[in-house]
Specification:
Elements lengths: L7 H12 L5 H7 L5 E3 L4 E3 L2 H5 L5 E2 L5 H12 L4 E5 L3 H10 L4 E3 L4 E5 L10 E6 L5 H13 L3 E5 L8 H4 L2 H6 L2 E6 L5 H6 L6 E5 L11 H8 L6 E3 L5 H12 L6
Parallel strand pairs: 3-4, 7-8, 7-9, 9-10, 10-11
Antiparallel strand pairs: 1-2, 4-6, 5-6
Protein backbone atom coordinates (compact mmCIF):
# COMPACT_ATOMS: atom_id res chain seq x y z
CA UNK A 1 0.00 0.00 0.00
CA UNK A 2 1.39 3.39 -1.02
CA UNK A 3 2.08 5.75 1.84
CA UNK A 4 0.28 9.11 1.48
CA UNK A 5 1.53 12.15 3.34
CA UNK A 6 -1.12 14.02 5.30
CA UNK A 7 -0.64 17.58 4.11
CA UNK A 8 -3.21 20.36 3.75
CA UNK A 9 -4.26 19.22 0.28
CA UNK A 10 -5.00 15.66 1.41
CA UNK A 11 -6.73 16.88 4.58
CA UNK A 12 -9.17 18.89 2.46
CA UNK A 13 -9.72 15.85 0.21
CA UNK A 14 -10.60 13.69 3.25
CA UNK A 15 -13.11 16.26 4.47
CA UNK A 16 -14.66 16.50 1.00
CA UNK A 17 -14.95 12.69 0.86
CA UNK A 18 -16.81 12.69 4.18
CA UNK A 19 -19.09 15.47 3.00
CA UNK A 20 -19.95 13.62 -0.22
CA UNK A 21 -20.44 10.29 1.56
CA UNK A 22 -17.45 8.58 -0.03
CA UNK A 23 -15.78 8.10 3.35
CA UNK A 24 -17.23 7.29 6.77
CA UNK A 25 -16.41 9.72 9.62
CA UNK A 26 -14.91 6.81 11.61
CA UNK A 27 -12.50 6.02 8.76
CA UNK A 28 -11.56 9.68 8.43
CA UNK A 29 -10.81 9.91 12.15
CA UNK A 30 -8.28 7.07 11.80
CA UNK A 31 -6.46 8.96 9.05
CA UNK A 32 -6.24 12.03 11.25
CA UNK A 33 -4.11 10.07 13.70
CA UNK A 34 -1.15 11.08 11.54
CA UNK A 35 -1.54 14.62 12.91
CA UNK A 36 -0.21 13.78 16.35
CA UNK A 37 3.13 14.87 17.79
CA UNK A 38 5.46 11.91 18.30
CA UNK A 39 7.62 11.94 21.43
CA UNK A 40 11.05 10.39 20.80
CA UNK A 41 12.36 11.37 24.22
CA UNK A 42 14.98 13.79 22.88
CA UNK A 43 12.65 15.31 20.27
CA UNK A 44 8.94 15.95 19.73
CA UNK A 45 8.35 15.30 16.03
CA UNK A 46 5.72 17.69 14.66
CA UNK A 47 3.60 15.65 12.24
CA UNK A 48 0.95 18.37 12.21
CA UNK A 49 3.25 20.96 10.62
CA UNK A 50 2.48 20.07 6.98
CA UNK A 51 -1.21 20.80 7.60
CA UNK A 52 -0.62 23.85 9.79
CA UNK A 53 2.06 25.58 7.71
CA UNK A 54 1.85 23.85 4.34
CA UNK A 55 5.27 22.19 4.60
CA UNK A 56 6.50 19.28 6.75
CA UNK A 57 9.07 19.66 9.51
CA UNK A 58 12.68 20.09 8.35
CA UNK A 59 15.49 18.50 10.39
CA UNK A 60 18.26 20.91 11.41
CA UNK A 61 21.24 18.58 11.63
CA UNK A 62 23.81 20.86 13.27
CA UNK A 63 24.26 19.91 16.91
CA UNK A 64 22.32 16.66 16.61
CA UNK A 65 23.94 13.23 16.72
CA UNK A 66 23.71 10.78 13.84
CA UNK A 67 21.42 8.59 15.92
CA UNK A 68 19.08 11.49 16.67
CA UNK A 69 18.89 12.58 13.04
CA UNK A 70 18.20 9.05 11.81
CA UNK A 71 15.45 8.54 14.41
CA UNK A 72 13.70 11.79 13.50
CA UNK A 73 14.06 11.04 9.80
CA UNK A 74 12.56 7.55 10.15
CA UNK A 75 9.60 9.05 12.03
CA UNK A 76 8.96 11.70 9.37
CA UNK A 77 9.56 9.28 6.51
CA UNK A 78 6.61 7.16 7.63
CA UNK A 79 4.21 10.08 7.21
CA UNK A 80 5.75 12.42 4.61
CA UNK A 81 6.72 12.05 0.95
CA UNK A 82 9.55 14.58 1.28
CA UNK A 83 11.99 14.98 4.18
CA UNK A 84 14.80 17.55 4.20
CA UNK A 85 17.80 17.52 6.54
CA UNK A 86 20.03 20.61 6.64
CA UNK A 87 23.46 21.45 8.04
CA UNK A 88 25.14 18.04 7.97
CA UNK A 89 28.88 17.86 7.33
CA UNK A 90 30.48 15.15 5.19
CA UNK A 91 31.43 12.90 8.11
CA UNK A 92 27.96 13.01 9.64
CA UNK A 93 26.29 12.58 6.24
CA UNK A 94 28.30 9.45 5.45
CA UNK A 95 27.19 7.85 8.74
CA UNK A 96 23.56 8.78 8.17
CA UNK A 97 23.64 7.35 4.64
CA UNK A 98 24.68 3.98 6.05
CA UNK A 99 21.39 3.90 7.96
CA UNK A 100 19.28 5.64 5.30
CA UNK A 101 20.77 5.11 1.82
CA UNK A 102 17.57 6.43 0.21
CA UNK A 103 18.63 9.98 1.11
CA UNK A 104 20.21 12.22 -1.56
CA UNK A 105 23.34 14.00 -0.36
CA UNK A 106 24.32 17.46 -1.64
CA UNK A 107 27.82 18.01 -0.29
CA UNK A 108 28.02 21.73 -1.09
CA UNK A 109 24.59 22.48 0.38
CA UNK A 110 25.27 20.21 3.39
CA UNK A 111 21.81 18.70 2.93
CA UNK A 112 20.20 15.28 2.78
CA UNK A 113 16.90 14.94 0.93
CA UNK A 114 14.37 12.12 0.80
CA UNK A 115 11.83 12.17 -2.04
CA UNK A 116 9.34 9.30 -2.26
CA UNK A 117 7.72 10.56 -5.44
CA UNK A 118 8.09 13.53 -7.74
CA UNK A 119 7.82 16.79 -5.82
CA UNK A 120 4.61 18.66 -6.60
CA UNK A 121 5.26 22.20 -7.84
CA UNK A 122 3.10 24.65 -5.86
CA UNK A 123 4.94 27.88 -6.74
CA UNK A 124 3.47 30.23 -9.32
CA UNK A 125 6.86 31.04 -10.86
CA UNK A 126 10.60 30.48 -10.58
CA UNK A 127 12.73 31.11 -7.52
CA UNK A 128 16.08 32.37 -8.79
CA UNK A 129 19.12 31.94 -6.55
CA UNK A 130 21.92 34.39 -7.34
CA UNK A 131 25.28 34.30 -5.60
CA UNK A 132 28.07 36.84 -5.79
CA UNK A 133 31.17 34.61 -5.67
CA UNK A 134 32.11 30.96 -5.80
CA UNK A 135 32.86 31.07 -2.06
CA UNK A 136 29.18 31.83 -1.46
CA UNK A 137 27.96 28.71 -3.30
CA UNK A 138 27.42 26.51 -0.19
CA UNK A 139 24.83 28.94 1.18
CA UNK A 140 23.30 29.38 -2.29
CA UNK A 141 23.06 25.61 -2.70
CA UNK A 142 21.29 25.29 0.66
CA UNK A 143 18.73 27.82 -0.60
CA UNK A 144 18.43 26.02 -3.93
CA UNK A 145 17.86 22.55 -2.43
CA UNK A 146 15.39 23.93 0.11
CA UNK A 147 13.37 25.82 -2.48
CA UNK A 148 13.19 22.68 -4.63
CA UNK A 149 12.16 20.49 -1.69
CA UNK A 150 9.37 22.94 -0.84
CA UNK A 151 7.84 22.70 -4.31
CA UNK A 152 9.34 25.45 -6.44
CA UNK A 153 10.83 25.64 -9.89
CA UNK A 154 14.39 26.76 -9.17
CA UNK A 155 17.12 28.34 -11.29
CA UNK A 156 20.51 29.76 -10.36
CA UNK A 157 23.16 32.29 -11.36
CA UNK A 158 26.55 31.83 -9.71
CA UNK A 159 29.65 34.03 -9.53
CA UNK A 160 28.04 37.23 -10.81
CA UNK A 161 29.19 39.64 -8.09
CA UNK A 162 29.84 43.36 -8.34
CA UNK A 163 33.59 42.90 -8.94
CA UNK A 164 32.59 42.00 -12.51
CA UNK A 165 29.16 43.56 -12.87
CA UNK A 166 28.98 42.79 -16.61
CA UNK A 167 28.45 39.13 -15.67
CA UNK A 168 25.20 40.03 -13.96
CA UNK A 169 23.96 42.56 -16.52
CA UNK A 170 24.26 39.99 -19.30
CA UNK A 171 21.67 37.87 -17.43
CA UNK A 172 19.07 40.63 -17.15
CA UNK A 173 16.35 38.62 -18.88
CA UNK A 174 16.70 35.73 -16.42
CA UNK A 175 16.51 38.16 -13.50
CA UNK A 176 13.32 39.74 -14.83
CA UNK A 177 11.64 36.40 -15.52
CA UNK A 178 11.93 35.17 -11.91
CA UNK A 179 9.09 35.53 -9.41
CA UNK A 180 11.38 35.81 -6.37
CA UNK A 181 15.14 36.35 -6.27
CA UNK A 182 17.37 35.08 -3.46
CA UNK A 183 20.66 36.98 -3.49
CA UNK A 184 23.62 35.49 -1.62
CA UNK A 185 26.73 37.60 -1.02
CA UNK A 186 29.58 38.11 1.42
CA UNK A 187 32.30 40.78 1.57
CA UNK A 188 30.44 44.15 1.57
CA UNK A 189 27.15 42.55 0.48
CA UNK A 190 26.42 44.97 -2.38
CA UNK A 191 24.79 42.57 -4.84
CA UNK A 192 21.20 42.70 -3.50
CA UNK A 193 21.13 46.49 -3.90
CA UNK A 194 22.23 46.18 -7.51
CA UNK A 195 19.62 43.53 -8.29
CA UNK A 196 16.94 45.44 -6.36
CA UNK A 197 17.55 48.41 -8.66
CA UNK A 198 17.11 46.28 -11.80
CA UNK A 199 13.94 44.25 -11.23
CA UNK A 200 10.34 44.62 -10.05
CA UNK A 201 10.54 41.42 -8.02
CA UNK A 202 10.98 40.72 -4.30
CA UNK A 203 14.66 40.31 -3.45
CA UNK A 204 15.61 38.25 -0.40
CA UNK A 205 19.19 39.03 0.63
CA UNK A 206 21.38 36.46 2.37
CA UNK A 207 24.64 37.77 3.87
CA UNK A 208 27.39 35.16 4.11
CA UNK A 209 30.30 34.91 6.52
CA UNK A 210 32.76 35.12 3.60
CA UNK A 211 35.25 38.00 3.73
CA UNK A 212 38.41 39.38 5.29
CA UNK A 213 38.74 40.56 8.91
CA UNK A 214 36.66 43.72 8.67
CA UNK A 215 33.72 41.71 7.35
CA UNK A 216 33.32 40.48 10.95
CA UNK A 217 32.04 37.06 9.93
CA UNK A 218 29.25 38.46 7.76
CA UNK A 219 28.13 41.36 9.94
CA UNK A 220 29.43 43.91 7.42
CA UNK A 221 27.42 42.26 4.63
CA UNK A 222 24.36 42.03 6.91
CA UNK A 223 24.50 45.74 7.77
CA UNK A 224 25.11 46.66 4.14
CA UNK A 225 22.05 44.71 3.03
CA UNK A 226 19.90 46.15 5.83
CA UNK A 227 20.92 49.63 4.68
CA UNK A 228 20.16 48.97 1.01
CA UNK A 229 18.72 51.98 -0.81
CA UNK A 230 16.94 49.68 -3.29
CA UNK A 231 13.25 49.12 -2.50
CA UNK A 232 11.92 45.60 -2.20
CA UNK A 233 15.02 44.12 -0.54
CA UNK A 234 14.51 42.13 2.67
CA UNK A 235 17.26 40.40 4.65
CA UNK A 236 17.62 37.11 6.50
CA UNK A 237 20.33 36.05 8.93
CA UNK A 238 23.97 35.36 8.07
CA UNK A 239 24.43 32.14 6.04
CA UNK A 240 20.69 31.37 6.29
CA UNK A 241 20.01 29.94 2.84
CA UNK A 242 17.26 27.79 4.32
CA UNK A 243 15.36 30.74 5.78
CA UNK A 244 15.60 32.67 2.52
CA UNK A 245 14.22 29.74 0.52
CA UNK A 246 11.36 29.20 2.97
CA UNK A 247 10.37 32.86 2.77
CA UNK A 248 10.69 32.81 -1.02
CA UNK A 249 8.39 29.78 -1.15
CA UNK A 250 5.72 31.53 0.89
CA UNK A 251 5.86 34.48 -1.51
CA UNK A 252 5.92 32.28 -4.59
CA UNK A 253 3.11 29.85 -3.89
CA UNK A 254 -0.49 30.54 -4.89
CA UNK A 255 -2.73 30.62 -1.81
CA UNK A 256 -3.15 27.56 0.43
CA UNK A 257 -1.70 24.21 -0.67
CA UNK A 258 -4.88 22.64 -2.02
Amino acid sequence: MERKSLDRRRLIKILEDVKEGRLLPEEASLRFQDLQTEDLGFAAVDHHRAVRLGFPEVIFGQGKTVEQIVAIFKSLQLKQDTVLITRVNDMKASEILKEAPELQHNREARTLLFVRKKIRIVGKGTVLVVCAGSSDIPVAEEAKVTAYALGNRVDALYDVGVAGIHRLLSKNQKLRSASVIITVAGMEGALPSVIGGLVDRPVIAVPTSIGYGASFGGIAALLGMLNSCAPGVVVVNIDNGFGAAYAATMINRVGPDK
